[in-house]
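= Paired protein data =
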Amino acid sequence: MTSTDMPSLTGKLLYSVKELANVTGLSAQAIRNEIKAHNLVAISYGTKYLIEPTEADAWIKRLRSERAA
């Protein structure tokens, strides 16, 4: 998968779990599981998790490198 296959994670300051799930094609529960496993850095705001685009990009890069190994 190349960077052109996936919509850009730029333009917003923070993404909700649902928004990141929609962009990546993963379920919201899969995103929450990654946050709880400390694989994806998120900000806890009340009962919501918010993800910075730079953190989402770094997480995606880590996933790619793990798959390539």
Q: What stands out?
A: Helices lie at 17-24, 28-36, 53-68. The CA atoms of residues 14 and 52 lie 5 Å apart. Residues 13-68 form a domain with the Multidrug-efflux Transporter Regulator; Chain: A; Domain 2 fold (CATH 1.10.1660.10).
